[in-house]
Model the fold of this input.
Amino acid sequence: MADSSKGLGIVPVVAAAVIAAAAGAGGYHWLMRPSAPPAPASATRSTAAVAKPDPAPTPAPAVAPTPEKPKVSEAEALRLKVFAAHGGEKAAAKRALSAAFASETRDGKVFARGRIWWRAPDARAIEFDVPAGPAGGAATKHRIVFDGKRAGFQGGKTVTPELTELMRLDTRFFEPADWATLYRSVELGGEETLGSEPALKVIKVSTGSMRVIDYYATRTSLLVARDTAEYDAGSKSFKALHLRYSDHRPVDGIPVPHTITTLDDSKSVLTVMRLTGFSWDGPIPDGTFTMP
Done:
């Protein structure tokens, strides 16, 4: 069947050409004077054939447009750099990590020793001993557990929803892979100087409404600081919490901070945690993540 949309465009043109050709060949006069002999059929066909327009050109095949690459936001571009800097797919494939630690006062005296275990995706347990003080206080044992949903403390600390949310963020095994699920917003806050090193400030608001500010070294994209707030149940208010991560060294090819310093609101040193004996995917003792 002929394409009607094409036919409607061509037929009037052909008819007009045939009529014009017939008038020029005496056909018009033949219509007015019946006694005159008709024009030879072959001449009519020949004239009509010459008058037909050239066939419509075959349209060129359609070329599919090249799809544009999806645009990556500034925050996502940074996350990809941070992901790679912290070990990338190799680190994301790990399922557990443990380390020993010693915590020091600002004057370098060790006041606690223990061990930390992390298990993917979001479980962490800390066990440590605080020796007897010089004044004769008793030695104490402490245990802190987060199993992905709940937090538990051996030692009397009150567990609040705010503290649970803070532990959820701090415990995520490989945080650079999970910004989309951990945070409802991530904004770049410009460059600041921490110590002598420039760092990019990133403001994150978690899905549980906890606000944290992370700083990534401009040169390496490694996490070097986190500012947040710890909820104090006694005063029912938030207390500023400033963490500084330093001495990044590779463990099985993955950079890990070996020193974590806690600062007060005036940025004076409160404690220094020194981590040693890291072990990726090593055995975890039974009951490690059982609530105290």
Remarks:
- The first helix runs from residue 4 to 24.
- Confidence is low (pLDDT under 50) at residues 1-39, 41-48.
